[in-house]
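debug: dumping io for the single-chain case to check the tokenizer round-trip. Nothing else runs in this session.
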Amino acid sequence: MLEADFVIIGSGSAGSAMAYRLSEDGKHSVIVIEFGGTDMGPLIQMPSALSIPLNMSLYDWGFASEPEPHLGGRVLATPRGKVIGGSSSINGMVYVRGHARDFDHWAEQGAAGWGFADVLPYFKRMEDSDGGEDGWRGQGGPLHVQRGTRKNPLYGAFLEAGRQAGFELTDDYNGSKQEGFGPMEQTIWRGRRWSAANAYLKPALKRKNVSLLKGFARRVVIENQRAVGVEIEAHKQIQVVKARREVIVAASSINSPKILMLSGIGPGAHLQEIGIEVIADRQGVGRNLQDHLELYIQQEATRPITLNSVLNPFSKAMIGAQWLFFKTGLGATNHFEAAAFVRSQAGVDYPDIQYHFI
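debug: decoded output
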């Protein structure tokens, strides 16, 4: 029988961290359910290959937005990782904590325990930071965070341009001062993508009390108003993974509310319309998703110092070989090595625009 104290749906950033922490003391068993396949291979592990798995149906769920009325009816890609490590295995490996005022705003709105002073110890516990501000950053945690080498002079030119334009500089935007132009941080270690799978899940799976189950989570099984397991489809069969203590839904901002609604938790009238028995009428489930748009601005360089010269097949092969054998060179970076956090206009209290320079 498939049974554990904790059953986690999803092996992404949240699911992997939960599996690691919940099994840490050895007292509780954990099953992680993941539909996606392995994260092995250079397309995911090589940092500079980041744009490839992002556009592959093997690794991405392939979600898209509805036509956006304020963008001329365009449909926007909405990548979500369908692989061990979830979206941390297909993202850009950029590490940003979020502004302290964001967390404090949540707390002011009623999210007790989510103020920045409350979450900072957990950020520090999570990190193994290389070069961050003393007192604000963590050492010895599972998640390695580094800075790029910034050997290309364009990174320095970007920072200097920001200074000349009247913006501030910051040595560590994840420290006491986010606002300004400065070096960008990466979840890369020893030349490899340091995903949640590498940082949390794989070390957890070495413990006897943690197992990974490949399957498609259909719904949470609820008996007497209590979650008791997860119904999954695996090997073309429907089966139930039982949870003695808790079911943890960590299947992304899109799949988590979908699973909750299929389980009868969500807007009651909507669930009744489509024939789902209402377990808990919760109006917020599946609504009010807010995402941030990314806009690329391309600039032509005045000197031949960009990566344009290495986009030919021979150079790519040499970069790939250097990474494969030594985990160094242009293949070992995501190329996001300089950044800026600025306010869009006068009267804005704290940065609302993020730049990453590539």
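debug: round-trip ok. The mean pLDDT is 96.
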